[in-house]
Amino acid sequence: MAKKPDRRTAMLQIIEQVKLELPLYDSDTFVCGPDNSCIGCPKKLMELLESEVSYWECALERGDSPDFDDISRFGKMCRNIKRGLVRNNIVAA
Length: 93
Fold this sequence. Notes:
Number of helices: 3
Largest sheet: none
Protein name: Oxidoreductase-like domain-containing protein
Organism: Photobacterium pectinilyticum
Order of helices and strands: HHH
Structural class: mainly alpha
Number of strands: 0
């Protein structure tokens, strides 16, 4: 049976997965869709995600450790943002 990661490692793993799966630093995702045809605003979703990732990277570098609620909330937010990006055909399902 594999040992579960500690809270810091779990948060780092989520951040790494977000950077791999979502176009976090791709400038094409930070623009509004043509004719305002967005289902949810991908630009605002990506700005929110970028700010949360930056916050947690800095907090982890300072030595702060997230609690389980922080990890759960961040993971849920990432899943919801990915769902919004899939609806707007920015990322594949």
